[in-house]
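thread from #wetlab-drylab

HS: before we spend reagent money on co-crystallization trials with magnesium ion, can we at least see a predicted complex? here's what I'd submit
DV: go for it
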Amino acid sequence: MDGNGRWANRRGLERTEGHSAGEENLARVVRAAVARDIGWLTVFGFSTENWIRPRAEVRHILGLHEKLFGRVAELNENNVRIRWIGRPFDAPEARTPRYVQRAIRRAIADTAENTGMVLTVAFDYGGRAELMDAVRAARADDGQVTPEGIQRHLYDPDLPPVDVLVRTSGERRVSNFMLWQSAGAAIHFADAPWPDYSPADLDAAIALVR
Ligand code: IPE
Ligand code: MG
């Protein structure tokens, strides 16, 4: 969900306001995705590299994740099951505060019965970290490393291969997102910064594969 900062800058607002607008827009995009019968939507909320941002900005983004995982009533109304991928909370380098951990656990439990779209939020997530963790776990479990072993030890092994990868805010490069799962994916480039990413942009992305 890239471009919150640029969106805010262009309006003469604080970066934090861009993040707030981005969180609001996620709710709109989730509704649009549900209306379009999308089965799986996975969004990059916060990366393993984002912790070095200014403290106040990180604190604001953490609060927004608490808010986002707190939208349980809305998720239930839309029959959406929420999940999370990221570094395990007990990993040595993990820094996710308890209140965010709690919000994540509660949202997963309180939407587990829903049967519609699966919304997965990547938080404290890095594609390379995920692969390193999966390779280590596969070797420990199986004594060897195979593609099946790696797949089985991803943060969420149930996530299907990515059909379309969306880059927002005019970025035309791959990021550290779902490196294993997105092999072979179509890529849709949207110029809109994330707070402006629209249902029409989503339609254009879907058109690449439907
Ligand atoms: C994405 O917006 C939000 C997070 C990475 C948490 P950015 O903060 O990266 O916005 P830009 O790239 O500076 O515009
Ligand atoms: Mg960015």
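DV: The chain has a mean pLDDT of 98.
HS: ok that's useful, forwarding to the group
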